[in-house]
Design brief:
binds nicotinamide-adenine-dinucleotide, globular, 7-stranded mixed sheet, alpha/beta, 6-stranded mixed sheet, 18 helices, 466 residues
Length: 466
C-alpha cells in the first residue's frame, strides 16, 4: 500500500496562511488511495494528454503566437510533436518499464528473490520556464504520469497566454483528483514550495534553481541554463556550419537552453564564417528578418532589455537592429568580443551570436574548461579525431558534433545538465526513471538457517576463521 513520505518537512510548516495546503493534501489523499499506481490509470492519463494535444492544437498555436509570435511550424515541432512522441513512446513501453528488474545474487541469497521495483514518489511538483512553455511542463508530466505519481504543474507566469491555456484547458482532460495546475510567479511558487512534495522537477535559470534547491529539501531534478560553447575547426564546410548554427541560434528567436551560445574559432575561420552566416540569415529570413513570419519575438520587455544591452559587447558584424515596441532583435553576430564582456558572461537567450577567436583547438578546450560546465558543448569539424578530442577533454550535460540542438530530439538520449547547468536528466525512459524511486527489494526464504546462523553471535573463533 502507498504510504506518505518523509522529506523532512511537515505539513504543519505549511499550515496557517499557506493557500496551497488544501490542494496538496487533497492530492496526497488521492495518492494514498493507490489509484495512480495502476497501469490502467497511467495509460488513461497518457492517452488523455495525447488527446489534449490533438484537440487544442489551434489554441496552443494562438497562445504561443500571442506570447512571443512563435512561428506555427516551430510550435508544432518543439511543443506538440515532441511531446506527442514522448506520450506515444511511454504508452508503447510502459509495461516493460514497470516490470521489476531482477538483479545478480550472491551465495547466501541464492534461494531468495532480489529485484529493483520502480515506485512512484508520490506527490510531485513540476515548475516550468517560459521559453518552451508547454514542452517543458508536459514532457516531465509524461514521465511523472508514466511513473505513477500525482502532480502539481506550475507553468511560467511570463508566457501568460500559454499559462492561461494550460490552467483552463488541461485539467479537464486529466483525473482532477490527481493532477492540478497552479498559476503565478515567484511569490506563488515560494508558497507552493513551503508544502511537502516527494519530488520536484524544476526547469529555469541557475540562480532560481539554487533557491528551489534550498527550499525543497526533497529529491529533485534541476534543468538549468548557461552558455553553450561551439568550436568551429578550420577545415569545416563553412556554409553547412553556418546553416546549422543560424538555425540553432534563431529557432524560437534564440530563446532555447540548448542553443549554441557563442562560437570559438581561429581568426582565419572567422573571416570565412562571417559571409556564410550572413548568407544563411538572408536565406532563412529574407533581406529584413523583421518581415519574416518564421522569426519569433522576445518574450518580455525585461528580456528584450537584457539582450539589447549585450549588443554593446564587441562589434556588431551582422544585424544588430532592434525594435522595442515589437520586442524584435535581428539575427546578430558580434565579433571582437572580450571574454570579460557581458555577452560572454551572461547566458544570451536571444538571436545573438558572439565569436571569440582562439588560436587552436587546445586553447578552445582550455577556454571551455575555465568556465562553468555547460548544458551542451558543440564542435564543428570534418576531422573526427578533433571531435573526439573535444569530447574527451571537456565536460557538459550533452555533446553535439556538426550540428546544434538536434541531440535533444533523440528520445533515447538522456537530456540534462551537469554542475551549474543542472542535476539529473529526463526524456523517454530516463523520464520514467527520474520520477521513480528505485526500491531495493530482497525477499528472503526462511530456509538454510544453518548457513544463516554463521553470521549470528556469539562470533566464535570458528566463525571468525571463515
Ligand atoms: P526562471 O528560473 O526565472 O523561472 C522558472 C520558473 O521558476 C517559473 O515558473 C517562475 O515562476 C519560477 N520562479 C522564478 N523566480 C522564482 C523564485 N525566486 N522563487 C521561486 N520560483 C521562482 O527561468 P525562466 O526565465 O522562465 O527560463 C529561462 C531559464 O531557463 C534560462 O536560464 C534557460 O537556460 C533555462 N532553461 C533550461 C532548460 C533546460 O532544459 N535545461 C530549458 C529551458 C530553459
Amino acid at each position: 500500500a502507498p504510504t506518505g513520505s518523509d522529506t523532512g518537512k511537515t505539513d504543519s510548516k505549511a499550515a496557517g496562511m499557506n493557500p496551497y495546503v488544501g490542494l496538496v493534501s487533497s492530492l496526497r489523499a488521492a495518492w494514498l488511495t493507490g489509484k495512480t499506481r495502476t497501469a490502467e490509470h497511467r495509460v488513461s492519463q497518457l492517452e488523455a494528454l495525447g488527446r489534449f494535444l490533438d484537440d487544442k492544437k489551434q489554441p496552443i498555436l494562438d497562445a504561443m503566437a500571442s506570447d512571443m509570435r512563435k512561428p506555427p511550424f516551430e510550435v508544432e515541432l518543439s511543443e506538440i510533436i515532441l511531446v506527442k512522441n514522448e506520450v506515444n513512446y511511454a504508452l508503447n513501453n510502459l509495461s516493460t518499464w514497470m516490470k521489476d528488474e531482477g538483479v545478480d545474487k550472491n551465495l547466501v541469497t541464492q534461494l531468495d528473490t532480489a529485484f529493483i521495483r520502480k515506485e512512484p514518489y508520490g506527490v510531485v511538483l513540476i515548475i516550468g520556464p517560459w521559453n518552451y512553455p508547454l514542452q517543458l511542463i508536459l514532457v516531465p508530466l509524461v514521465g511523472a504520469i508514466a511513473a505513477g505519481n500525482c502532480v502539481i504543474i506550475k507553468p511560467s507566469e511570463i508566457s501568460s497566454s500559454t499559462e492561461k491555456l494550460v490552467a483552463e484547458m488541461l485539467p479537464s482532460y486529466l483525473d482532477k483528483d490527481c493532477f492540478a495546475v497552479v498559476t503565478g510567479g515567484p511569490a506563488e511558487t515560494t508558497q507552493l514550495l513551503e508544502n511537502k512534495f516527494d519530488y520536484i522537477f524544476f526547469t529555469g535559470n541557475p540562480q532560481v534553481g539554487k533557491i528551489v534547491m534550498a527550499a525543497a529539501a526533497t529529491h529533485l531534478t534541476l534543468e538549468l541554463g548557461g552558455k553553450n560553447p561551439c568550436y568551429v575547426a578550420d577545415e569545416s564546410d563553412m556554409q553547412n556550419v553556418a546553416n546549422r548554427l543560424v538555425w540553432g541560434r534563431c529557432f524560437n528567436a534564440g530563446q532555447t537552453c540548448v542553443a549554441p551560445d557563442y562560437v570559438l574559432c581561429s581568426a582565419e575561420t572567422q573571416e570565412k564564417l562571417l559571409p556564410a552566416l550572413r548568407h544563411a540569415i538572408t536565406q532563412f529570413f529574407g533581406p529584413d528578418p523583421r518581415e519574416s513570419p518564421d522569426f519569433a519575438r522576445i518574450i518580455s520587455d525585461k528580456q528584450f532589455q537584457h539582450i539589447r544591452a549585450l549588443l554593446g559587447s564587441g562589434r556588431v558584424a551582422i544585424g544588430g537592429q532592434t525594435d522595442e515596441k515589437e520586442r524584435y532583435v535581428a539575427p546578430t553576430v558580434l565579433v571582437d568580443v572580450q571574454p570579460s564582456e557581458p555577452a560572454m558572461q551572461e547566458e544570451i537567450f536571444g538571436p545573438v551570436l558572439p565569436i571569440v577567436t582562439v588560436p587552436n583547438v587546445d586553447e578552445a578546450i582550455a577556454f571551455i574548461n575555465s568556465r562553468e560546465r555547460p548544458l551542451v558543448v558543440y564542435v564543428f569539424a570534418a576531422n573526427s579525431k578533433l571531435v573526439r578530442r573535444v569530447l574527451e577533454r571537456t565536460s557538459s550535460g550533452g555533446f553535439g558534433a556538426n550540428d546544434s540542438v538536434m541531440q535533444m530530439t533523440l528520445i533515447s538520449l538522456p537530456f540534462g545538465g551537469i554542475g551549474n547547468s543542472g542535476l539529473g536528466s529526463y526524456h523517454g525512459k530516463f523520464s520514467f526513471d527520474t520520477f521513480s524511486h528505485h526500491r531495493a527489494c530482497l525477499l528472503r526464504s526462511m530456509g538454510l538457517e544453518t548457513m544463516n546462523s554463521l553470521r549470528y553471535p556469539p562470533y566464535s573463533e570458528r566463525k571468525r576463521g571463515l
